[in-house]
């Protein structure tokens, strides 16, 4: 008997019919001889609705109380799913994140998991139950306050439990049939990937692919937990994410030269104008940003003007953190010594990912040729061994993604990229 951890997203449990459909799939896994642990998200858009409600009551809701509010969504889902499973004649118990032993740090709204002690989950499994766990939440090690893990937190919960329970696989059920070579909502001829390495998936996730979140893949790589991304709306085989190629039939699935094209329109760009070009200035800027607990993505420094000895430094960051970053930099303006700040939230990022590009000459040239032919102007460039990213205008992103996808022969012969639930998450 194996142990399987399954995670179902909000679109999979959006209504009563969805919950009953998911319950049947879970029971089928149990009947196949597996112990089953299920991690569930809030129903549909419940989390967004709770955030809107909080903001109507308070423009800046307190982090602790917001976490108390938001965790209600997953508790509703877990209880309803346990009821549906019991209605099918199987034993089930539901657990909050804290009851499941998900221990986090004390950062509200975006806590990180520091330990998992799943004693109650093991006991429930030993008693023949299917264990249903509320995703996206835990309890702080210090203070024992309820915390939430931020966007994609349910995926991270599932992988963390799979590692703690030594599961054979973590199945992530969503509303698409797997990981595709591009966002199915933008490229209808995107192809499903049968297998992708942790490294390539990390780059796709960091570059804007929303099927799996970066933290989830990072956790899976650290503990070598295979992830199977599948749709809860179909019975099709999905995408395997693991350290080694999977066996399919009588041969192994090989790594493609190019894994896919990702895009992200949730970032903004800040340019710090007139920075003295001397040692320590860049450190002062990014220390200020770090102290504000803001993550940055791409960084570019212009050549210093010889006549003034000043330069400009541009960087991208989540759009939601833009105001906080501007305020932090203004507060430390005298310490840094810049002239002014420019803020731009109408940008988009396009990234080409593939481990094979480091050994294949011409990939970079083909990438920029495709963008040029599509009439796309480039503002920033960032590269790694397996990724090329550029920043351009937000309105140019869809056309740029389709152009690059076609240029690298990633288009499918048929429109197989179906988004069953409408969100692609």
From TrEMBL:
Pathway as given in its UniProt record: Amino-acid biosynthesis; L-lysine biosynthesis via DAP pathway; (S)-tetrahydrodipicolinate from L-aspartate: step 1/4; Amino-acid biosynthesis; L-methionine biosynthesis via de novo pathway; L-homoserine from L-aspartate: step 1/3; Amino-acid biosynthesis; L-threonine biosynthesis; L-threonine from L-aspartate: step 1/5
Kinase keyword on record: yes
Reaction catalysed by this enzyme: L-aspartate + ATP = 4-phospho-L-aspartate + ADP
GO molecular function annotation: aspartate kinase activity
Residue span, ACT domain: 270-346, 352-425
Protein name from the UniProt record: Aspartokinase
EC number: 2.7.2.4
Similarity remark: Belongs to the aspartokinase family.
PROSITE patterns tied to this protein: ACT, ASPARTOKINASE
Protein purpose: Catalyzes the phosphorylation of the beta-carboxyl group of aspartic acid with ATP to yield 4-phospho-L-aspartate, which is involved in the branched biosynthetic pathway leading to the biosynthesis of amino acids lysine, threonine, isoleucine and methionine.
SUPFAM superfamilies named in the record: ACT-like, Carbamate kinase-like
Pfam families membership: AA_kinase, ACT_9
